[in-house]
Amino acid sequence: MTASRLSHLDWLESEAIHIIREAAGERTNLALLFSGGKDSATVLHLARKAFWPEKLPFPLLHVDTGHNFPEVLEFRDAEARRHGEKLIVRQVEDSIVRGTVKLPRPDASRNAAQSVTLLEAIEEFSFDALIGGARRDEEKARAKERIFSHRDEFGAWNPKSQRPELWSLYNARINAGEHMRVFPISNWTERDVWAYIAREGIALPTIYFAHKRDVVRREGLLMPVTALTPPRTGETAERLSVRFRTVGDITGTCPVESEADTVEEIVAETEIAELSERGATRMDDRVNEAAMERRKREGYF
Fold this sequence. Notes:
Layout: H1 8-26, E1 30-33, H2 38-51, E2 60-64, H3 70-83, E3 87-91, H4 92-98, H5 114-125, E4 129-131, H6 140-143, E5 148-151, E6 179-182, H7 190-200, E7 211-218, E8 221-224, E9 238-243, E10 256-257, H8 263-272, H9 277-281, H10 283-287, H11 291-297
Parallel strand pairs: 1-2, 1-4, 2-3, 4-6
Antiparallel strand pairs: 5-6, 7-8, 7-9, 9-10
Helix pairs in contact: 1-2, 7-8
């Protein structure tokens, strides 16, 4: 296929594969962050293409909050087994036991707490680069992120001292104790991801597709009713057809009302969506618009 005939998705795929190979060529001890969500599943698919027919030259890493949706964890484990990939899982619960994570209350969201457990895993395995599925269209803090994002010896990100990336040249040099976060699908949109999933036939957890679920209406969102998130006083549970646009900690991740149960129908819905996934479905991000940037400065994904 000549360059002039490359489609939009072909260009994005080619760029992402180049970034993944560049990361593997520049750093010596990488891991690919794999939660089982749609973006990490897309990056995993791209990584497999980048090194086909060889297996991935790095493991998968997931920081489990202990409050993840069971369907997503089952998918995560099944995908790793299906392709024979090494999967490293580290638990926020273990950080709580060690005393390195302290929550304001037992039912509090554990999203922000992942930063501590992630940095502990980086130190444990001496990772010098992590490949992740963040995209710039998700929210304002991620829009500031470079593709090769330098993190200092404390795992912190400083948006004002990022390295230039002119002509797709990436500076992956680090000092002892530092590491890089690498985001191959930075330039993709939610629609791009779903269109690529449709084209490539990428498997996903079932909760991304329309299904019946008990929810309550809370702060303009639909909160799933679970053992961790029961209805509050005055709230009435409704059983609706919903799907998740993004997946994370149960205590802060909300579905949207939808009848879309195929990838093609989801692509069509995404075309007319007015809010990003996080703006429409992440309760903790909506409550505090600066939440993501603060977390990233502290070592978040």
